[in-house]
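I am writing to request your help with a piece of structural work I have in hand. The matter concerns a single protein, recorded as an amino acid sequence and a row of backbone structure tokens. Could you please explain, in whatever detail you think fit, how the structure tokens follow from the sequence? Thank you for your consideration; the sequence and its tokens are set out here:
>
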Amino acid sequence: MWEKLYKKIDGLYDKMVADRRYLHQHPELSFEEKETAKFITNRYDELGIPYKSNIGGYGVVATLEGGKSGKTVALRADFDALPIQEENDVPYKSKVDGKMHACGHDGHTASLLAVAEAALEFKDELPGKLVFLHQPAEEYAPGGAKPMIEDGGLEGVDAVFGTHLWSNTKLNKIETTKGPFMAGADRFTIIFKGKGGHGAMPQQTKDPVVMAGQAIVELQQVVSRRINPLQPAVLTIGIIEGGNAFNVIPDTTKLTGTVRILDKEVQDLVIEEMHKVLKGISTSYDAEYELDYIKGYPPVVNHDKEANFYLEEGEQIPGVTDIEQVDPVMGGEDFAYYLEERPGAFFFTGAQIEGHAYPHHHPKFDIDERALPTAAKALIHGYKKFQES
């Protein structure tokens, strides 16, 4: 039966490509995915698979009950796009100015819809239940996973699996690891409150630009000198805002950045050390500071047994060319919330276009669509192995 199911997925390749390209041409941003959700529910109406819509926002949860007793396994695909102007010259280029599927979520959705259609044909032979989690708003915190969980999206679910089509990885290669796989992704804003004045008379001011400059340098030492080198962490300043005239010292300067961690204890230490650095700088200038630290998605931490379904048994998936246990990636993913609630695993499916390996969130990002059936079969593999475990 499993071999037939895999072949059925392969037979849906053209449909997957068509679905992916339609969604690519009609991107919708996080929390705005009304028409994308309608596209998904229309497909489940056609298939006759029952579903619930508007779960945690525009989320869709469809359930296929197998004919044999077994466990309930959820498979997840996100479906939001990004505020990016596409620069690819392809027939399926985004038709919406300033919006683009620059992270592969269109492909995730196409693959999961194919899983649902293929599984339907063999439902009498399938064990347990398959739950299809179509999630909105992965790209921006608070994200869509947590609201879907709070709205009952994981009710009755025993395990959950998800994949990300990965443009940096060779076509049809599976990458994952046991334990921490992707980082917690936080955001912070720092405001130095000084005293402005004429640039020619700095002695009469409390210069927040200089304070910000010191902070940019000294905050790097939080990671390099305060965190155990064996515990990964990143602290990056991405935005500097201060002043609007070349010869005027402003009253305030604002820094915005991100922290990435794989351990929540490290997160607490980073916050504590940031306050020490910022207090020291502001005190030396007789000024003040504000730190608004927003904890974002937690780290994606795979469960060992479920990760081993891919690391030790992934060669059973037709179409997979290679399997590698990789180091954690410092990018963030709200799939983390599912893994905090249920056992499961998250993995990358290689989708690199040879000679066009642009990273995620790039205006020229694209995927090799031959990865779509591989991603679909890899998701089914997690369901299959969990039933057998």
